[in-house]
Specification:
Blueprint (H helix, E strand, L loop, with lengths): L2 E4 L5 H18 L9 H13 L8 E6 L2 E11 L10 E9 L8 H14 L5 E4 L6 H9 L15
Parallel strand pairs: 4-5
Antiparallel strand pairs: 1-2, 2-3, 3-4
Helix pairs in contact: 1-2
């Protein structure tokens, strides 16, 4: 049996393992996305404090199958722009699904669940960022109905 549910404290070790895989995928696409040596310790504390926050809506959801946690999504209230007339927002942070659960609509279901809990309390402006070079991620978000709003450009002087 499989289920999507709100993330719990006991899920954090598995979620952090999936997060490491997500970051490794990002680094494979864009080498500047490599995580710092201290990232694991920082992320463990941050995930505990932020992913488990239930206010004003749950900030994290997991997909669990018979073999354990195989996917997660995080989403947070977005303060929005002080100059744009826009509704309260949900900023989707991370989405990742383990290889064994891919191509089954799990990522889509995770995102839909995160949007549903935010929308239920009035957060209707949904924002997501992804690496432009990650063509699979860009295609996924576009298939979910997201459109380009702005482009962040970066130049390294190293």
């Amino acid at each position: 049996m499989s289920v999507i549910r709100t993330m719990a404290r006991g899920d954090l070790p598995a979620v952090l393992d999936l997060w490491r895989q997500l970051m490794a995928n990002g680094a494979a696409v864009e080498s500047r996305w490599s995580v710092a040596p201290t990232a694991d310790a920082w992320m463990a504390g941050w995930a505990r404090d932020v992913f488990l926050d239930p206010s004003p809506f749950p900030h994290g959801h997991v997909y669990e199958d018979d073999d354990g946690i195989a996917g997660f999504v995080s989403g947070f209230p977005d303060p929005g722009s002080p100059v744009l007339d826009e509704p309260k927002g949900l900023r989707i942070g991370d989405v990742f699904v383990a290889e064994r659960a891919r191509r089954q609509g799990v990522a889509r279901r995770l995102v839909e669940q995160q949007i549903a809990v935010a929308k239920a309390v009035g957060y209707t402006n949904i924002i997501v960022e992804t690496l432009t070079r990650d063509t699979r991620a860009v295609a996924f978000w576009r298939a979910m109905g997201f459109v380009d709003m702005r482009v962040q450009l970066r130049r390294s002087e190293d």
